[in-house]
Amino acid sequence: MTWWTRWHDDLSKPETTIDHRQLPILVGAATAIVVVAQTTDPGTAVELVLVVAAAMGLVLSAAVDRLPRAVIAVLITVSLTTAMWRDGNLEVALFLCVLVTLYSAWHLGSLTKALVITTAAAVAPLLVSNAIPEEEIAWTPWAAANVLMFVLGRNLRRQRVLIEQLEAAREALAQQAVADERQRIARDLHDLAGHTLAAVLLHVTGARHVLRRDPDEAERALLEAETVGRGSLDQIRFTVASLRTSERGTDPALPGSPDLIGLVEEYRRAGLDVTGLVTASAAGIEGPVGTALHRISREALANVARHAPGNRVELAVELDADTDEVRLVVADHGRGPAAQHHDHGHFGLVGMRERARALGGELDAAPTADGWRVEARLPLAGAGREQSLP
């Protein structure tokens, strides 16, 4: 970027609005400056009119946002210089230049414009002093006052910009928190509904197939479906209670979440041909990692139950001591992926990937030659550094 481009961009920076609650203070200060200037070092009627016009211009530039403040600031400096040029009267009115410098440095986005206005306000007393040396106008304190007000104004502007950025960041975080909570609720409802319907559907389908030839077996399947439904109601109540009390936006541990063998047995009783291999070191994982393992496993099994209930399923969980991570694999075999309708790119896989990423892990899901395979790798360190799920 060339210096010309940077300079042009600086000149294009917008002005910030002056808080109208400052207007009474500004009006009072401008009025006091005019009165004191006329009282201590009175000028002619023309000189007084020029000073009053400068004071009114300062107030109007603050009150009306559409007015070009930079142009008005220069006109105020010229008006005050003209008023004092001949006789050096109304010296106290130079405080208006000091106020112009302060407000220009504070509210003008362009550093170049603010420097030009400050320079003009600082040079004005020097010009008057050189034009009428017999009046002995001390231009040095006025120049120093303008430089000081420039520094103060830029610091106030920087503080205002930082406050606005913090407010914008706070608003963005608040909106993100709402979005995160909505996604969390959607994910929990999807998991609970998907698991419940898949398990109940397997039991009901089994009951329908044996209803005429084995009423006892059909009754057993229906009782299992009822048990699953009641258990899901308990989990829904637990989830609703956690949503009302949890402020972190993370998934609470489910009762019995480490019991992956129990989950496998539940689907096996429902009629799914599933085998589970959970190593002893991985069987007792609790906390966020245990919850993620349980929910990812449950979603993967529910997908098979919904879309390929005749497939053979293998679930394996093992702990890798070298990498300090746990590895979960759920793979089904039988009907090819072309005939299946897994939630690829939709809520199920999205939710599983979100759970893995929240713990610093990763999840891969893809079709195989005769089914579907889900593999998740979760670091055990994630149990101590769980992130908010997106």
List the secondary-structure elements in sequence, H or E. HHHHHHHHHEHHEEHEE
In which order are the strands of the major sheet placed?
1-2-3-5-4
What would you call the structural class? alpha+beta
Note the total helix count. Answer: 12
- Bin the helical content: 55-70%
Tell me the β content.
Answer: 5-15%
What's the CATH class label of the largest domain? Alpha Beta
Question: What gyration radius follows from the Cα positions, in whole Å?
Answer: 38 Å
Can you put this structure into words, describing what you see?
There is one protein chain. The chain is an alpha+beta fold and 390 residues long. The chain has 12 helices and 5 strands. The chain has helices at 3-11, 23-40, 45-63, 69-85, 94-107, 111-131, 139-210, 215-245, 260-269, 280-283, 287-307, 347-358, and strands at 273-278, 312-320, 325-333, 362-368, 371-379. It has a 5-stranded mixed sheet. A hairpin with a 2-residue loop joins β4 (362-368) and β5 (371-379). α4 packs antiparallel against α5 (94-107). The longest helix is centred in the middle third of the chain and has 72 residues, at 139-210. It is rod-shaped and about 120 Å long.
